[in-house]
Specification:
Elements (H helix, E strand, L loop, with lengths): L1 H26 L1 H19 L17 H4 L6 H8 L3 H19 L1 H11 L4 H12 L6 H11 L6 H8 L11 H29 L3 H9 L4 H26 L6 H5 L7 H4 L2 H11 L3 H29 L6
Helix pairs in contact: 4-16, 5-10, 6-10, 7-10, 12-16, 15-16
């Protein structure tokens, strides 16, 4: 009898929940209609192409297609592991990803905290615009700017070094500088975008908290460390998880514009190698296996990071 009552209560609860959801959808139907183009985009350009990952387990032939190409199992993955240059390329990708997390990720947070302390609104908006503008430039343009700035003959950096008696340095022609150039150019280009996200999170903080802290005699630094940072910590955690998910996906165009035979030893990453082996040499199955390997690693990192984030901040992606 008790089991029947529990089953009946469960059915009533599910019916009430379903009715509430339908009522909610009827009320906000314009929002669901607006989401349809985005859903269609992800279906066509994200989910449907995932079926093409099957060629990672084939010896794909563009004339035979997926159905006609022979299956080879894990041979492409074995080839990836056994390839002599893959380990150095993977090492470059991991090191550049770590440097990006350590040096580039904190910059928007620091900039947002500094901009939030500015009290002259006109000056604050000007600085924010100047910091944000490089985000709209393509990596081709950024690469041209960096090449011009670091040029051994006409670059401003070498002109400044010459004032101190230093011989001109061909920065893009040496392995020791390429990683620094990649990270610093990324900071200059994209830090403004992250700054706006953190400023939006800071803008949602209740001003009464700062007033109460001022009454208690807290300094501006103490207000930042005790109020601002803890409140925006969930935002930091979410963006950090998204960054971790793209850990091995540093960006093809970001590296390709700076890459040359003189710096490829420390500069070549998985994305540029996939371009060279997949598109130039037409090794489609092999490079698809590499891409699938990247996706699996990214998914694992997101899952691990999400568990850690929930324990530390109480928030996660899911």
């Amino acid at each position: 009898m008790a089991g029947k009552v529990e089953s009946s209560d469960r059915m009533m609860y599910q019916f009430a929940t379903s009715g509430h959801k339908l009522k909610f959808m009827r009320k906000y139907w314009p929002l669901y209609v607006l989401s349809i183009p985005g859903i269609i985009f992800f279906l066509i350009f994200r989910y449907i192409p995932m079926f093409g990952s099957a060629i990672a387990f084939q010896e794909y032939n563009i004339f035979k297609g997926i159905k006609g190409s022979p299956w080879v199992g894990l041979d492409n993955f074995k080839r990836m592991i056994e390839y002599a240059e893959f380990v150095p390329i993977l090492k470059n990708t991991i090191l550049i990803g770590i440097y990006d997390l350590c040096f580039a990720f904190p910059v928007p947070i620091i900039l947002a905290l500094l901009l939030n302390e500015l009290r002259i609104m006109a000056y604050k908006r000007i600085v924010q615009t100047v910091v944000y503008m490089p985000h709209f430039l393509s990596w081709v343009i950024v690469g041209g700017i960096v090449v011009g700035v670091l040029s051994p003959s006409t670059g401003i950096v070498n002109h400044l070094l010459a004032l101190f008696g230093v011989e001109p340095i061909y920065f893009l022609g040496e392995n020791s500088y390429i990683r620094t150039i990649l990270i610093s150019s990324g900071i200059w280009k994209d830090s403004g975008w992250g700054t706006i996200i953190y400023l939006a999170a800071i803008a949602g903080i209740n001003p009464d908290l700062y007033e109460a802290a001022q009454v208690d005699g807290a300094s501006r630094l103490r207000q930042v460390t005790s109020i601002t940072v803890p409140i925006i910590l969930p935002t930091i955690a979410i963006l950090f998880l998204l960054q971790i998910g793209n850990f091995l996906d540093f960006g093809f165009e970001r590296v390709f514009v700076f890459l040359n035979p003189l710096n490829s030893e420390n500069g070549e990453i998985i994305d540029t190698y996939v371009y060279r082996a997949g598109l130039v040499d037409r090794q489609y199955s092999y490079t698809t296996a590499i891409g699938l390997f990247k996706s699996i690693v990214g998914l694992a990192l997101i899952m691990i990071g999400n568990i850690f984030s929930k324990k530390v901040t109480g928030n996660g992606l899911y």
